[in-house]
Amino acid sequence: MNATRLDEDFTSSTHVYEPHRAGLPRFGKYFRALWQRREFIRELSRTSMRAANTLTVFGQIWLVLNPLLLAMVYFTLVFIIRGTADSDFLAHLVASIFAFTYFGGILRSGASSVTGGGKLLMNTSFPRLLLPLTEVRTAFFRFLPTLGVYLVLHIATGQAWDWTMLLAPYFVLTLTLFGAGMGMIFATAQVYFRDTASFLPYMVRLWLYTSPILWYPWEGQARIQEVLGDVAWLLYLNPLYSMLGGWSESLVRTSMPDTPMLIFSAAWSLVAIVTGVLFFMSKEREFVVRL
Amino acid sequence: MSSVSEVQAVSEYSVATAVKVENVSLTYRTTFERTPTFKTALVRLGRGERAVKEVEAVQDVSFEVPHGNAVGIIGANGAGKSTLMRMIAGILPPSQGRIEVDGRVSTLLALGVGFNNQLTGRDNVILGGLAGGLTREEIHERYEDIAEFAELGEFIDMPMRTYSSGMFQRLAFSVAVHMDPDILLIDEALSAGDATFKQKAAAKMKDLAANARTMFLVSHALRSVKDMCNDAVWMHNGRLMMHGEPKEVIAEYRKFLKFGEDAYSMEDF
Hints:
The complex is a heterodimer of chains A (291) and B (269).
Chain A: H1 8-11, E1 14-17, H2 27-36, H3 38-51, H4 57-82, H5 87-111, H6 118-123, H7 130-156, H8 168-192, H9 196-210, H10 217-228, H11 239-251, H12 259-283, H13 287-290
Chain B: H1 2-15, E1 17-31, H2 38-47, E2 52-66, E3 70-74, H3 81-88, E4 96-102, E5 105-108, H4 121-131, H5 136-150, H6 165-177, E6 183-187, H7 195-210, E7 214-218, H8 222-228, E8 231-236, E9 239-244, H9 246-259
Parallel strand pairs in B: 3-7, 3-8, 5-6, 6-7
Antiparallel strand pairs in B: 1-2, 1-4, 8-9
């Protein structure tokens, strides 16, 4: 009717509500409504960043300072344990910590996105996927300034520049999809068990140690071969091994990541996002009665 | 362009059915705890207790409401009134049956407009509108009216955690009625706010009903149902007990309250 209208479903004269088949709403209608409300994601993400002072100068500095200090702590730790740590390792450590902080951010804020949305959920009918997706956007915009800091470090530590660095966004993409999928799963779990978020920090910490952040990917391979034999493939069971490993290889070492890293990171992220979206959508109509 | 299409829309609506509820039931599983945790679930499992309870919130309800009606929904706490409203709004899909809703729905089913108390009233109004599917332009068109009606003054640009409960109420009500709804769903909206605002709210709702809009009002205040509504629905334990003239429905409901459930055979309705 009106050219400025985004949402046909909202303005169309008749809505029909019937039981969902197989526990899932109709995909076409659902994703159309989601796309029509994309402005909500931008607005919510922007206003909540403003409320958290993320858009102020000190807010931005803190976003960078926090993971940077964490990297310093780990650098010292690794130096004490190994007795050696050079500037190349520092660059790898900082780049990986930044990416991991991004992933952890999606996971943590995604997990509480639904339970934190109480009143809006009780009052308004909208595709609930908007809530975890907003957190992905917010986490991404918090990740961006840290990239600038890494580039300065990249120059300062004298790392090379090469076309393989163009592969780094590919790994950020897989990391984002993987984080989004996991975030949706945790957001759903959080509705049923409110203490899920209390387990998350331990899980995230464990994940940090088992991913190639405090060690190089090839060191992990060598170590696992030394201890368990010819089973280096075990490392690929950790999705972050491929994603963070590939990120550091392409961005910091400017070398071509192993092919399995390229394949496994894509595969894991697709599995996570599809599972996350379907799991979330199959449960979202129950959210209102559980909140 | 918009004025022509609005006139057409109104004339179409005035003859059509606003809400058609056909054999609708909703059953859901929920827990006893207000905040369910994994810990309590484990404890319950250890004791061999069942933590999940099945709730038959609405059972086999059917009714039809033409446009231009003001429908009062009455019944005891837990009768399924709010659930029924949420189903009409599309927030809760039914587990059986079919609901047909004709037109744009605006709701005031839970207190508070948006959901983030750290954000200002303005931000919450915009976010609520965007989630409801309005465009940014449409929200800006309505924004001044919303702010003016709510009478919040400078508080509209303050974080909502600084609001009093009356202010929450006024803003929430103002947003709901200014969304240009064809169908307005209101849950106990008149129970808070000061006397002046109550009168203003009642006048606004009468105004909407007079303009061939449809309104559902969930209320325990039988008098306001009698005053404002020309149609009434009485719910009890998830079932529809009676649908008809407010006067008659309220009289039956009063009789029921006096003599209790036993005096009534539920199958009669």
